[in-house]
Write a sequence for this structure.
């Protein structure tokens, strides 16, 4: 698992991607594979089917074929060619009526540092991993999670592997610590080789109380800050509509109280109403 405590991220060694073989999941697969290649991590791809558990992986996303199309591997590359890139790939097909339960069991046995999954509108039909299931999976596994909405292609082209990631929106608060989100945004930008980026820090509250996270300074990286007052969720969504970010990065404790249990955490409420890719960075304060 990836627990970011006091803004100190661990290295991403294992990326986990649950798939239902839909077009939306294929878009999320592209993000998972791009990050796996850039970070030289291991990638686990899992599908849970209530009726099949056979070892046939023909319908799984094609890793070597995709990397060949991106120009990273030669055509008809072998498994040894894949290993030479410094990455390992594992495909798992499970049989269960409840995909979330099966996935959580796997993650308890082999924790992931990053999970990449597609989310869907509530009215989407025949999807085994709905938007709320994705939230539950991220919350219960306590894994840093990149959500790629089904209505959006995200920031990695599945066709050619090109990354279109320049604008980041990072909502801030004192709790959870905004440093974790800032560090995660910088880590994603660095891993994908982003030389030109705009990081917009947004705080909803009084100007005198603005958090002051440490910022990484690089040529081509521009940091901006805005402050607004109002309802937090609405202000974040308005900022996202206005700025059209490629990625929203939020530190989250997921649900921490009675109201959160009723209506969902701030991150969950943003996730349900945005079509932008969102990286949820779990922060768990150490016990005193």
């Amino acid at each position: 698992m990836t627990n970011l405590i006091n803004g100190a991220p661990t290295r991403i060694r294992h990326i986990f991607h649950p798939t239902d073989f839909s077009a939306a999941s294929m878009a999320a697969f592209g993000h998972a594979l791009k990050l796996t290649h850039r970070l030289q991590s291991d990638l686990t791809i899992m599908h849970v089917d209530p009726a099949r558990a056979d070892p046939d992986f023909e319908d799984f996303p094609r890793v070597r074929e995709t990397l060949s199309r991106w120009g990273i591997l030669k055509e008809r590359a072998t498994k040894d060619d894949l290993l030479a890139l410094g990455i390992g790939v594992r495909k798992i097909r499970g049989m269960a009526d409840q995909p979330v339960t099966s996935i959580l069991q796997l993650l308890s046995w082999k924790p992931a540092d990053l999970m990449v999954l597609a989310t869907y509108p509530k009215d989407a039909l025949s999807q085994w991993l709905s938007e709320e299931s994705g939230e539950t999976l991220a919350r219960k596994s306590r894994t840093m999670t990149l959500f790629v909405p089904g209505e959006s292609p995200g920031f990695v082209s599945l066709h050619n592997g090109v990354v279109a990631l320049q604008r980041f929106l990072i909502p801030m608060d004192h709790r959870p610590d905004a440093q974790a989100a800032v560090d995660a945004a910088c880590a994603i930008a660095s891993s994908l080789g982003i030389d030109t980026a705009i990081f917009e820090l947004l705080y909803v509250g009084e100007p005198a109380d603005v958090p002051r996270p440490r910022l990484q300074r690089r040529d081509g990286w521009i940091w901006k800050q805005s402050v607004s007052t109002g309802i937090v969720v609405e202000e974040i969504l308005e900022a996202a509509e206005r700025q059209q970010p490629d990625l929203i990065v939020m530190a989250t404790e997921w649900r921490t109280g009675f109201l959160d249990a009723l209506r969902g955490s701030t991150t969950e409420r943003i996730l349900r109403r945005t079509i932008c890719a969102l990286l949820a960075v779990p922060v768990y304060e150490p016990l005193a």
User: Anything to note?
Assistant: Residues 23-39 form the longest helix (17 residues). Confidence is low (pLDDT under 50) at residues 1-9, 123-128, 257-263. The first strand starts at residue 14 and ends at 18. The chain is about 30% helix and 25% strand.
